[in-house]
Design a protein that fits this description.
Blueprint lengths: L11 E4 L24 E2 L8 E9 L4 E6 L4 E5 L17 E2 L2 E6 L6 E4 L6 E10 L7 H12 L10 E2 L2 E2 L10 E7 L10 E3 L6 E4 L13 E6 L6 E2 L9 E5 L7 E4 L6 E2 L2
Parallel strand pairs: 16-19
Antiparallel strand pairs: 1-9, 2-8, 3-7, 3-9, 4-5, 4-8, 6-7, 10-11, 12-15, 13-14, 14-18, 15-17
């Protein structure tokens, strides 16, 4: 059996595979993490400065992750992470949408604790890298998580893989709600099915046969004009438009729409 080699060696990496059926809470067709034991703690201590990425959804107040050292501690509470997508976070090492990205200094023999039973939140993936970390850049990790879970990034310029930018933002009208499929071998990500985590209007998917079209670095991204999926009764045209960008001449994929969200607008 051929196995995909993953080139990212983080200090901690927790994730769940793609879902085969709709069971419980999901983000872009993937199940949330389920902690089997009563306490979710890292086995090894963290002695160097680190970079923590968390994919989550929240509807209330939960302590999601804590990094506790001998002299300092970092507590990440879900209620304080609910940041509007439109906010300018400048440094990007803060929470935006459903993706938390935070740097922390040396905490001296720290342990990372993951809440095993949050009551109103869901955690989908956790990546912890110790700095300096050169095998994958911060932007590449953000790109991987955003594409995998259909999450907004603050700036389209963050879509980067192997030093190549994936999104051409020259058409400003469509630099919104970017999502899609990509094969990123650095992270073991293969294309399957995707929709934007908030819009959920368009679903793009590939069959097992169609996956052979994708090689390492192949991507297919959709950006919208930020209008709702509604139709003008006079023209019959949708107010919502997508711009598609890819780095391959021909790709065959399957597209589907949620028709219950598309309804005519009468003026």
């Amino acid at each position: 059996m051929h196995k995909t080699r993953i080139f990212l060696p983080p200090s901690l990496w927790l994730q769940n595979p793609i879902s085969s059926s709709v069971v419980g809470d999901q983000l872009n067709f993937r199940n949330q993490l389920v902690m089997r034991s009563g306490i979710g703690s890292s086995a090894n201590s963290l002695d160097r400065p680190g970079h923590l990425y968390i994919v989550y959804q929240t509807n209330g107040s939960d302590n999601l992750v804590s990094v506790i050292g001998q002299r300092q501690a970092l507590f990440l509470d879900s209620e304080s992470l609910k940041t509007p997508d439109t906010i300018n976070l400048r440094g990007y090492n803060e929470s935006f949408g459903e993706l938390l990205d935070v740097r922390f200094g040396s905490l001296e023999s720290a342990r990372l604790w993951l809440n095993p039973q949050p009551t109103s939140s869901s955690v989908y993936e956790v990546i912890l890298t110790e700095t300096p970390h050169r095998s994958a850049s911060v932007e590449e990790i953000r790109t991987y998580l955003a594409i995998k879970y259909g999450i907004n990034l603050v700036d389209y310029k963050q879509y980067v893989y192997k030093r190549e930018k994936l999104w051409d933002g020259s058409k400003n009208k469509y630099n919104h709600r970017i999502f899609g499929l990509a094969q990123l071998s650095l992270f073991g990500l293969k294309p399957s099915k995707s929709m934007h985590s908030k819009d959920q209007d368009l679903i793009v998917s590939v069959s097992k046969r169609q996956r052979s079209q994708f090689r390492d670095g192949t991507y297919l991204l959709f950006g919208t004009n930020n209008n709702p999926l509604v139709f003008d009764h006079k023209t019959g045209e949708s107010k919502k438009e997508w711009l598609v960008q890819t780095n391959k001449e021909q790709l065959k994929v399957n597209l589907s729409f949620k028709l219950n969200s598309a309804y005519p607008v009468y003026n």
